[in-house]
Amino acid sequence: MTRTTDTARLPLLLTELRLPTVARLWPSIGDTADTEGWPAARTLATLLEHEVAERANRRTARHLADARLPAGKTLDTFDFAATPMVSLARINALAAGDSWLDSGTNILLFGPPGVGKTHLSAALGHALVEAGHRVLFTRTTDLVQQLQTARQELRLAAAIEKLDKYRLLILDDLSYVRKSQAETSVLFELISARYERRSILITANQPFGAWDDIFPDPAMTVAAIDRLVHHAIILEMNTASYRQKTAQARITDITSSADPSPSN
Questions:
Q1: Rounded to whole angstroms, what are the CA distances from 146 to 141, 149, 179?
Q2: Which end of the chain is more exposed for a tag (fewer CB within 10 A), N or C?
Q3: Element (H or E) spanning 161, and its range?
Q4: pLDDT one-digit tens code per residue, 160-176
Q5: Are 249 and 122 in contact, with CB atoms under 8 Å apart?
Q6: Where are the domains of the chain?
Q7: Whole-number pLDDT of residue 70
């Protein structure tokens, strides 16, 4: 009778303690423990290990959704053979995060359009989320517009502080920001606020020499570059456009399949 009463109470107790995985698994694991004669400590440890693992999976799923990473762009789908100047071993080391994120080190990813900068940055972000880090992926122009709105509403400092929860902020396509857009100095304020505290990954089509087109004045350009480069890992992807090569290969395949086979 006591055992039956305890069994009936368990679902209520586990719900109260917010242990849904234990509540779901305890009947089957309990039966296994009874059959195999597990000690109580092993049974409890097994149940709690499942609970911890499930919580980690749910947390990762939430953080992946919050990161806004482009779908399908992971390290497994990135063509490292097409970009030999990018070391797979180095990217795998960066994917672990830890030391470079702890020091607020930035990653600057340069290369012409179509070489895979967005794919690689998103893939790295995905790996970091899987490793337990908070990441946000955004087009630089979109974030600049959001920060401009925050400034107009006198909440710029709060908006920048809110981004602190992300250990890595991925700013894609920096080169498309132009100083002709109103108040792009908010980008400089973001860079300054994260300097030596939180990491930024920037993808850009143009090298530093062309960044005068982004910030309102040369002094701000120099100051922004100085803050980004002080603790930075610079990756250059100066290769032919991957999109162009893929399109050309597709055209070649279509042409080949359309050619009639020579008659005997």
A1: 9, 5, 16
A2: C
A3: helix 156-162
A4: 999 999 999 999 999 88
A5: no
A6: 2-66, 69-239
A7: 95
